[in-house]
Amino acid sequence: MHKATLDYAQQKDQQDPLSNYRKQFHIPKDANGNDWLYFTGNSLGLQPKATQQYIQQELDDWANFGVEGHFEAKNPWMPYHEFLTESMAKIVGAKPLEVVVMNTLTTNLHLLMVSFYQPTKTKYKIVIESDAFPSDRYAVQTQLEFHGFDANEGLIEWKPRVGEELLNIEDLETILEEQGDEIALLLIGGVNYYTGQYLDLKRIAELGHAKNCMVGIDLAHGAGNIKPELHASGVDFAAWCTYKYLNSGPGSLGGLFVHEKHAHNKDLKRFAGWWSHNKSTRFNMRQPLDVMPGAEGWQLSNPPILSMAAIKASLDMFNEVGMDALCEKSEELTGYFEFLLNQLNNDKIRIITPTNPKERGCQLSIQVKDADKSLHQKLTDAHIITDWREPDVIRCAPVPMYNTFEDVYRMVEKLKDILDEY
Ligand SMILES: *Cc1c(COP(=O)(O)O)cnc(C)c1O
Asked: How far away, in angstroms, is 10 Cα from ligand 1 center?
């Protein structure tokens, strides 16, 4: 049984096999040199100390070799994206053939929909969660319009039941039973950004495929947080960003997954560029397009190496730790956070994230009765960095790579004080 004491939290940190990783990150500090309590790794992950060297390496090689760096750099730029593939594939539970790092998340969603959203006059609707991230919503609305459909009529929302926040898989089942013949695509957030709910991807894929729908997953809040087992889930495609749990820096590149079953289908419609083309003849320059098999065949451009260097710095760390160890700590750390919040026994707050650890990652979304943004401001003023979502939710993600049991203990102590004044 957990205890709500500082001693106990510190003892948990001492027993934590991953406790050394915190030292490998820059933790922002207040004016007195005390570490901030940083709980927004779900929004922008902290900077690994190694990142600077990884980027410096590429700056040096650019200075020393110019264009020859494509072949002569320590990590040659020509195949640089391949250095990320294996680690990224492990993080999302995919085969290397199925994964590539390129572009940004919303761009990748559009490129994937070019291939996997092929509506007909009668089968054209798209299902998203009602609490989908706005970018995903805009992406599917404009895809509908691009194909000549009415964005309102063509969009089906999978909603929580009245008075609830979480989604029920049975309700998706009902939507598919009733309208499956008109639905072309499901595009679902694997871990919801607002509630932190982690959905059963395999079940979603089965339900969608039973009605001949394509199934795509947005893993922005999943990659590096949970183990989505993308290959085994059977979903057709997925996309995510790397600046949240994957600590690769603001606006960094995204990841893309295309299931192996589509890897060799050259008839899939796609938007192509020279980086989609067969590596061995790419530089002959005068050939018809010969699309590469697998996820690499969705690339368009030669990628930004400086951004990839930052991703490599982070993925090398993830590779060393492994998602198993990370998720084990995550479950323990978030479990302790939940225990402390429940211990407050304060009816002003309610955790809306699922209580079952298998249905969430590290994030807890705390709904605060009659709160407004000033509550969040008080936390921020105390250098406790959380995220406020209108109308009344604080999202708080203790990430296992660098957050501590002491962090969550101190956070809940402060929250208690603030709620008492409220
Ligand atoms: C963070 C996030 C995005 C952001 O998209 P970008 O294209 O990287 O700006 C999109 N969708 C979801 C679900 C997100 O969580």
From this structure: 35
Q: What separation in Å is there between the alpha carbon of 240 and the centre of ligand 1? A: 7
The pLDDT of residue 399 is 98
Q: Which domains does the chain have, with CATH numbers?
A: 6-35+322-421 (3.90.1150.10), 56-319 (3.40.640.10)
Looking up tokens 């079952």, which residue turns up?
A: 356
| Residues of the chain where predicted confidence (pLDDT) is lower than 50 | none
Residue keyed to tokens 């705390």 = 366
Pocket test for ligand 1, best of 193, 195, 253, 395 (most atoms within 8 A of CB): 193
| Helix (H), strand (E), coil (C) string for the chain | CCCCCHHHHHHHHHHCCCHHHHHHECCCECCCCCECEECECCCCCCCECCHHHHHHHHHHHHHHHHHHHHHHCCCCCCCCCHHHHHHHHHHHCCCHHHEEEECCHHHHHHHHHHHHCCCCCCCCEEEEECCCCHHHHHHHHHHHHHCCCCHHHHEEEECCCCCCCCCCHHHHHHHHHHHHHHEEEEEEECECCCCCEECCHHHHHHHHHHCCCEEEEECCCCCCCCCCCHHHHCCCEEEEECCCCCCCCCCCCEEEEECHHHCCCCCCCCCCCHHHECHHHHHHCCCCCCECCCHHHHCCCCCCHHHHHHHHHHHHHHHHHCHHHHHHHHHHHHHHHHHHHHHHCCCCEEECCCCCHHHECCCEEEEECCCCHHHHHHHHHCCEECEEECCCEEEEECCCCCCCHHHHHHHHHHHHHHHHHC
Q: What is the pLDDT of residue 284?
A: 85
Q: What is the pLDDT of residue 243?
A: 98
Which pair of structure tokens corresponds to residue 284? 């002959």
* pLDDT for res 371: 82
For 63-74, what is each residue's pLDDT tens digit?
999 999 999 999
Say what the pLDDT of residue 287 is: 85
Q: How many angstroms is it from 45 CA to the middle of ligand 1?
A: 14
Look up the pTM and report it: 0.97
pLDDT at 65: 98
Do residues 200 and 224 make contact, with C-beta atoms less than 8 angstroms apart? no
